[in-house]
Amino acid sequence: MANDKFFKPSTVYWAETHEVTNQPSVLENYNCYEQDIALQQSVQIHGASWAVKDLQRFGAITGSAEVIELGFQANENKPVLHTHDRHGKRIDEVRFHPAYHQLMKIAIEEGIHSSHWRDAKKGAHVARAAKYYLHSQVEIGHCCPITMTSAAIPALKNQPNLFKAWADKIMSAHYDPRNIGDSKKQGLTLGMAMTEKQGGSDVRTNSTRAFAVGNSGAGQAYELVGHKYFVSAPMSDAFLVLAQAEQGISCFLVPRWRPDGSKNPIQIQKLKNKMGNISNASSETELRGALGWMIGDEGRGIAVILDMVSMTRFDCMIGSAAGMRQAVAQITHHCANREAFGKKLNEQPLMQNVLADLIIENEAALALSMRVARALDESSNNEQEKLFVRITTAIGKYWICKRAPEHAYEAMECIGGSGVMEDTIMPRLFRESPINSIWEGSGNVQCLDMLRAIHKTPKSLTAFINELKGASGVNKHFDRAVSELESYFIDQQSIEYRARLIVEKMALAIQASCLIQYGDALIAEAFCNARLAAENTGWVYGTLPTSIDCQAIIKRATPQIR
Ligand SMILES: Cc1cc2nc3c(=O)[nH]c(=O)nc-3n(C[C@H](O)[C@H](O)[C@H](O)COP(=O)(O)OP(=O)(O)OC[C@H]3O[C@@H](n4cnc5c(N)ncnc54)[C@H](O)[C@@H]3O)c2cc1C
Questions:
Q1: Which residue's CA is the nearest one to ligand 1's atom 23?
Q2: Residues 429 and 524 in one domain
Q3: Domain closes at, from 299, 314, 347
Q4: Does 44 contact ligand 1 (Cβ within 6 A)?
Q5: Which pLDDT tens digit goes with each residue over 272-287?
Q6: What CATH number has the domain bearing residue 311?
Q7: Quick one: pLDDT at residue 406?
Q8: Whose CA is nearest to atom 48 of ligand 1?
C-alpha cells in the first residue's frame, strides 16, 4: 500500500509540502498613533492635545497596507537622471517612481513641511514632530526634501522681500513635481547646496563664486559659478546655496528656472549611488552662471544657512527616533507571535532583556526629540528655551543618530533570518540608520558645535543644567550623573579631544531628565538604572540589570493588532 501511494501520488501530496505555522502576520492595517503609547503621552504632555484627533486619523494612514507598500515601491525603483531630452537639449530632470510622488503628496498635504510655521500656535512644533515621526516610519528617503523645505523657512526670513515672495508657495499644501518654473506652480519645495568636493564640514573652503549682476548686497541678484558635490532632492524648485562673494561666504536663493522662463544653468552631472536614502535622489551639480538672490548680508552666509541646518538637525533626531520606533513595532509584534523552544519569543527571559532595552532606547530618543519640539514652540518668547534648543539640538543629533545603527541591527536579529530579507522593512531601516548621523553635520561636528555653543553662549549650558535640575531627587543614579557633569568641563585643554564622551554624558542625562519629567515612570526608572548606574557595564543591547520590569515595558510597546 505504501508503495502504491508513493508511485501514484494524489494531487494533494504534490501541492502541499507543509503548513505555514509559527509565522507572525504582516504588521499592517493598524493605527501607528493609537498603538504608540509613548508618542501619545508626549503629545499630551508637551501641549499638543488639540492635535490628537488629527494624529489618530493620520496614524491609520501610516499604518495602512497601501501606504506601507508605497515605501517599498519607492525604494525598489531608484530615481533616474535624464540630463538631456531626445533633441539634445539639457533638461536636468530626475524621474522618480510614482510611489515617491505619492509619499511626497501625502507629506505636503498633511503639512509636515510647514504646519508649524503656518499656524505657529502652542504645540505646533510638537504636533508636527509627531506627524513627522509617524510618516518617516513608512519611508524616510522622501522626508529629506520635506525637511529641507520646512527648514528653509527660518533661513529665508533673513531676507524679508524674498520671504514675502516665496513663503506662501513653500508653505502651501500643494505638491507639484513638474519640471517647470516656480511662477507656474502653486506649491514649491526647497533644497540646499553647501557641500563641495574639498570640504563638507568646513564650508569655509567653498570655492563656488558669486558675481553681482548689478548692485551687490542683501537681496540683490548674482550669478553663481562652481560645483556642488552633494545636492539632494535636485528637483526642488529652489536651493539655498553657499558661495563666495566679494565680502566672503554668502547664502543665495537659487531657483531651478529663471523668472523669464528659461532654465537656470544648474546642471546635474550624476546621481550618487547611495547605500541608503534610495528613494530620494542626491546629485553632483555644476552651477554655470546660475541666477540667485542673496539672503541676508554679504559674508554672513554661514550664519544664515545655520538657521536652516539647525532645523534639519532637529528632524534628524525625530527621523532616527522614528526608525527605532518602527523597528520596535516590528520586533515586539514578531516576538509576541513567534515561538521557539515551546514558548513565545517575548516570554524568553533573554529576549525580554533585548526587547526591553531596544524599547527603552526608542522611548528615550522620542522623549528628547519631543522636549526639543516643545522648546522650539516656546523659544519665540522664552530665552531659556531658545538657549536650550541651541545646545540640545547638537547633543540630540549626535546621540540619537549614533544610537540608531546598532538599534536597527539588533532589531533585525530579533526577527532572525527573515529580518535580513528585503521583503521586510528591516534591511531598509538598517541602511537608513547611519545617514542621519553623517549628513547635516557629522558626529564630531555636532560635538564641536556643543562646545561652540558653550563657548559663544555660556548661558546655553546654564539653561541645559537648569532643565536637568527639574528632574532631581527622583533617581539616585540620575542625581549622581548630573552632579558629575561639571567635572567634565574642568580640564579645558583636552576638552575637544574628550568632546564625544562629554556629549554622551550630557545626552544620557538629558534623556533621563526628559523621561523623569515628562515620560512614563516605569521607563524613566529603567533608563536611569540601565544607562546611568555606575555598575552598569553592558556594551550591547540586552544587558539590562535584573531590577527592570521587562515584561511591562514590552507590553507597553507592542502593537495590539486585532
Ligand atoms: C545621503 C547624503 C545626502 C546629502 N545631501 C546633501 C545636500 O543636499 N546638500 C549638501 O550641502 N550636503 C549634502 N550632503 C553632504 C553632507 O552634509 C556631508 O557629507 C557632511 O557634512 C560631511 O562632509 P564631508 O562629506 O565633506 O566630510 P568631511 O567634512 O571631510 O568630514 C569627514 C569626517 O571628519 C570629521 N571632521 C570634520 N571636521 C572635524 C574636526 N574639526 N574635528 C574632528 N573631526 C572632524 C567629520 O565629522 C566626518 O566624520 C549629503 C550627504 C549624504 C551622505
A1: 200
A2: yes
A3: 299
A4: no
A5: 999 999 999 999 999 9
A6: 1.20.140.10
A7: 98
A8: 442
Q: Number of helices and strands (H, E) in the chain? A: 21, 11
| Pair 126, 181 in one domain | yes
Does the Cβ of 194 fall within 6 Å of ligand 1? yes
Asked whether residue 17 is domain-assigned, the answer is no
Q: Which of 442, 448, 498 to mutate to test the pocket of ligand 1 (most atoms within 8 A of CB)?
A: 442
With CA atoms as reference, report the closest residue to 38 among 436, 506, 360.
360
The model's pLDDT over 190-211, given as tens digits with 9 standing for 90+, comes to 999 999 999 999 999 999 999 9
| Ligand 1 center–CA 230 separation, angstroms | 9
β 90-95/80-84 pair status = antiparallel
In a domain, 66, yes or no: yes
Same domain for 294 and 308: no
Check if 434 has its Cβ closer than 6 Å to any atom of ligand 1. no
Query: Over the stretch 39-53, which tens digit does the pLDDT of each residue have?
Result: 999 999 999 999 999
| Cβ of 117 below 6 Å from ligand 1 | no
Reported confidence tier of residue 10, pLDDT bands at 50, 70, 90: low
User: What is the domain extent for residue 237?
Assistant: 49-299
| Residue 241 and residue 93 in one domain | yes
Could you tell me the distance, in angstroms and rounded to a whole number, from the CA of residue 443 to the centre of ligand 1?
Answer: 9
| pLDDT of residue 162 exceeding 70 | yes
Is residue 232 in contact with ligand 1, taking CB distance under 6 Å? yes
Same domain, residue pair 187 and 320: no
Q: Is residue 32 part of a domain?
A: no
> What pLDDT is stored for residue 3 in this prediction?
53
Pocket test for ligand 1, best of 230, 279, 503 (most atoms within 8 A of CB): 230
Report which residue type is found at 297.
D
CB-based contacts of 393, cutoff 8 Å, min separation 6: 310, 313, 314, 317, 372
Q: Which amino acid is at 92?
A: D
Ligand 1, atom 53, lies closest to the CA of 439
pLDDT tens-digit readout, 417-457: 999 999 999 999 999 999 999 999 999 999 999 999 999 99
Tens-digit pLDDT profile for residues 485-527: 999 999 999 999 999 999 999 999 999 999 999 999 999 999 9
Split at pLDDT 50, 70, 90, the class of 1 is very low
User: Pick from 249, 280, 299: which residue ends a domain?
Assistant: 299
Per-residue pLDDT tens digits for 93-134 = 999 999 999 999 999 999 999 999 999 999 999 999 999 999
Residue 422 located in a structural domain = yes
User: And the C-alpha cell for 507?
Assistant: 545626552
Q: In the 8-state DSSP scheme, what is residue 342?
A: T
Residues 331 and 472 in one domain: yes
| Angle CA 471–543–348, to nearest 5 | 115
Q: Cβ(499) to ligand 1 under 6 A?
A: no
Residues 547 and 475 sit within 8 Å (Cβ to Cβ) = no
Name the residue at shortest CA distance from atom 16 of ligand 1.
439
Hey, what long-range contacts does 382-390 have (CB within 8 A, 24 or more apart)?
Answer: 384/463, 384/466, 385/463, 387/457, 387/459, 387/460, 387/462, 387/463, 387/464, 388/460, 388/463, 388/464, 388/467, 389/310, 390/310, 390/453, 390/457, 390/460
Q: What is the mean pLDDT of the chain?
A: 96
Total of domains in the chain: 2
The answer to whether residues 418 and 349 belong to one domain is: yes
> 350 and 248 in one domain?
no
